[in-house]
Amino acid sequence: DQQVKQNSPSLSVQEGRISILNCDYTNSMFDYFLWYKKYPAEGPTFLISISSIKDKNEDGRFTVFLNKSAKHLSLHIVPSQPGDSAVYFCAASGEGNMLTFGGGTRLMVKP
Amino acid sequence: EAGVAQSPRYKIIEKRQSVAFWCNPISGHATLYWYQQILGQGPKLLIQFQNNGVVDDSQLPKDRFSAERLKGVDSTLKIQPAKLEDSAVYLCASSRDKRAIGGQFFGPGTRLTVL
Questions:
Q1: Residue A29 Rama label (left phi>0; alpha psi -120 to 50; beta)
Q2: How far is Cα B109 from Cα B50, in angstroms, rounded to an integer?
Q3: Does B45 sit within 8 Å of A99, measured CB to CB?
Q4: Which candidate in A24, A98, A100, A105 is best for mutational testing of the B interface (most B CBs within 10 A)?
Q5: Mode of pairing for the β-strands spanning B53-56 and B31-37
Q6: What does the alpha-carbon distance between residue B4 and residue A86 come to, in Å, rounded to a whole number?
Q7: Residues whose CB falls within 8 Å of the CB of residue B15, separated by 6 or more in sequence, listed in order
């Protein structure tokens, strides 16, 4: 029973264009959502988060959008850079504070 | 600020053997987590400590996995005996508080291969 799903295992984007990574969740008790970035042989690195009281949070080139009614969040990277090539995980937490991760999306930004 | 330290980075064992992983969290971080990440999947929480007490171990296979965090600082995760399906990367993470606002900080992980 996957409560957090990332349906696209990979995404390829041209440098300078927008990257959109998607994430769906099923548990309506989740109220805090995070995105992590992971390079090979390293642990995940926190990127950006959003609380359920907001529908958008922006940090430089990274913006996370939350659609609570659709139980959907997305991460936009504009403009995409080759250094953004990594695996991106979305995660969600609720009252219990546990983080539940999606399966990840591998982003490849081509020069 | 030093990051989360883990050792060893790699471990290869045969099934039914025992193995232990060590984690030293970021100084001052009260909450420590152990995750299992199987290839192609996202990290799955095994156990969460707040200081030296267990907050959540509902997904820890307690018949073979054990973890402790003595003195509320570093932690060890043990598997005894190991099975083939335990092959994974074991990630340790820490945060200032249980709510982990601002995220959890992860170590580089220990890649375990069980033959």
A1: alpha
A2: 20
A3: yes
A4: A98
A5: unpaired
A6: 20
A7: B81, B82, B83, B84, B114, B115
d(CA A39, CA A24): 23
pLDDT category at B101 given cuts 50, 70, 90 is low
Torsion angle of alpha carbons A87, B56, B71, B94, nearest 10°?
A: 20
| Cα–Cα distance list, B25 to A97, B1, B6, B30, B113 (Å) | 18, 11, 9, 9, 24
Q: B29 and B95 in contact (C-beta within 8 Å)?
A: yes
Nearest-CA residue of chain B relative to A39? B108
Q: Which residues of A touch B40 (CB under 8 A)?
A: 103-104
pLDDT surpassing 80 at residue B102: no
| Amino acid type, A62 | F
pLDDT single digits (tens) A22-41? 999 999 999 999 999 999 98
